[in-house]
Amino acid sequence: MNKTIILIALMTFTIIGKSQTNDSPEFVADRPGIATSPFIIGPQSFQIGSGFSIENDHRENQSMQTMLWNTTLQYGINEHVDVSLQTDYAFEKADSVNVSGFNPLTVGTKFLISEGNKFIPAFGLLFNLTLPYFGHDNFKPDNLGPSIYLLMENDITDKLNICYNVGLEYDGTSAVPTELVTICLSYDIAEKINIFVENYNWFSSESKPENYFDCGITYMIRENIQLDLSGHLDLRNVEKYNMIDFGITWNFNRN
Predict the structure, then answer these.
(1) What are the angstrom distances between the C-alpha of 189 and each of 7, 32, 79, 150, 186?
(2) Any domain includes 135
(3) Hey, is 14 helix, strand or coil?
(4) How many domains does the chain have?
(5) Coil, strand or helix at 45
(6) Mapping DSSP to helix (H, G, I), strand (E, B) and coil, where does residue 243 land?
(7) What residues are paired with 53 via a beta bridge?
(8) Torsions phi, psi of 117, nearest 5?
(9) In angstroms, rounded to a whole number, what is the distance separating the alpha carbons of residues 211 and 6?
């Protein structure tokens, strides 16, 4: 059995049932970083996260530009569970070939297992399933693509926070999973402004590791609306890959 699956299972069974002593964050947005918070958006709460990114990739002896408009809908079922639905509209330009259309739908469920206490991190589980029934033929996988992530987060100080994830992803084509490891540090430089730096990595036995770095800023224009801007680089090919991403997250159930 894959060692990552064993690690996730052991940590999950260890932390289930721990007391919840901290208050959940007032506003939770999965944008803009790759790392995902274990906290949910709130019971009977509806939230939209949407953004636009431009990716320039000159690796693999080719030039490709991808423009992506992504939208995620989330609904909080109760204090410990929320569900999500995500899709993207992509425009890919590779040399003289242009392809545009919707990516497949991804449905997800997040479980908040423990809110943590002092040095004990908050824990959560996220399950995603990419469906091969919708989207452009060039973007659809052959089969269902399940993913599972263990989500962890600690408040180091009142202003400094660390979020880190480990997970397994299946792309719906290969039977070999890809492992994802992320770590993100964020800091509140003002009441409404947060900055972050992040490292995220994919590992697979079928390909070389992929190691990325991103940094960005978020701004709360209201207590239920967050704007974000971030930039990404490939640490192995800094001069050949970059992406810029900006977006908005809006929770409709907060005043």
Answers:
(1) 35, 17, 29, 28, 9
(2) yes
(3) helix
(4) 1
(5) coil
(6) strand
(7) 68, 245
(8) -160, 110
(9) 23
Domain encompassing residue 7 = 3-159+169-251
Secondary structure E strands in 80-133 = 81-94, 97-102, 106-114, 122-130
DSSP annotation of 142: S
In Å, what is the CA distance from 41 to each residue of 28, 72, 134, 236?
5, 13, 27, 35
Residue 105 falls inside a structural domain: yes
- Residue 229: partners with Cβ closer than 8 Å, 6 or more residues away: 32, 216, 217, 244, 245, 246
pLDDT < 50 positions in the chain: 1-24, 255
pLDDT number for residue 241? 95
Does residue 164 fall inside a structural domain?
no
CATH number at residue 134: 2.40.128
Residue 39 lies in a domain: yes
CA-CA-CA-CA dihedral for 114, 87, 209, 174, to nearest 10? 100
Which residue's entry shows tokens 């569900």?
83
DSSP state of 145: E
Task: Note the pLDDT tens digit of each residue in 167-210.
Answer: 999 998 888 999 999 999 999 999 999 999 999 999 998 888 99
pLDDT in tens, 234-253: 999 999 999 999 999 999 97
What's the one-letter identity of residue 96? Answer: S
Query: Which residue type occupies 114?
Result: S
Neighbours of 65 (CB within 10 A): 14
Closest CA to 160 of 194, 135, 132, 129: 194
